[in-house]
Design a protein that fits this description.
By secondary structure, this protein is mainly alpha-helical. The protein contains four helices and two strands; from the N terminus they run E-E-H-H-H-H.
């Protein structure tokens, strides 16, 4: 059964879904909370990613200043690339949108996997497999929730 997608704004009244009127879900959080969450979630993910990369790179050894610097630079790179991908992907059609997020996910995994010291061929294969899976999942999601012009179906 198809559900109406929330618009992200204040409730404007009922919407029509397959011939019947359904009330829009209420927007529980304020606009300020949504703005904070737009940056807090990627920053939190970046901090986890940076810690993970730094811990893989030190191979169980002691934490050093270079290891901390590497972790924080990884956080910075992750958050900046995430922001760029999010900004660019919104302007692309569903195919490009899915390809861009798939490439981001595959590259992120490949970088982490490469820190463990395995063969580069293995990193590339695993990254491509994840990128293909993310592309397929997102393309299916966008394809089933948009009309032919790329607008969300109500």
């Amino acid at each position: 059964m198809a559900q109406a997608l929330p618009t992200g704004g204040a409730s404007t009244g009922p919407t029509r879904t397959r011939g019947r009127t359904a009330p829009e879900p209420p927007d529980v959080f304020s606009e300020r909370t949504h703005k904070v969450a737009r940056w807090a979630a990627p920053l939190a993910a970046g901090l986890v990613y940076g810690y993970w990369a730094a811990s893989i790179r030190r191979h169980g050894g002691p934490i050093t200043g270079w290891n901390l610097l590497f972790g924080f630079l990884t956080v910075l790179a992750f958050v900046v690339l995430y922001a760029v991908v999010r900004a660019v992907a919104q302007r692309l059609p569903r195919e490009g949108h899915a390809v861009l997020w798939g490439a981001f996910a595959g590259s992120a995994l490949g970088f982490l996997y490469a820190q463990s010291g395995v063969a580069m061929f293995t990193c590339v294969v695993v990254s491509l497999l994840l990128a293909a899976a993310v592309f397929a999942m997102l393309f299916y999601c966008y394809y089933t929730h948009e009309d032919a012009t790329g607008h969300h179906m109500a």
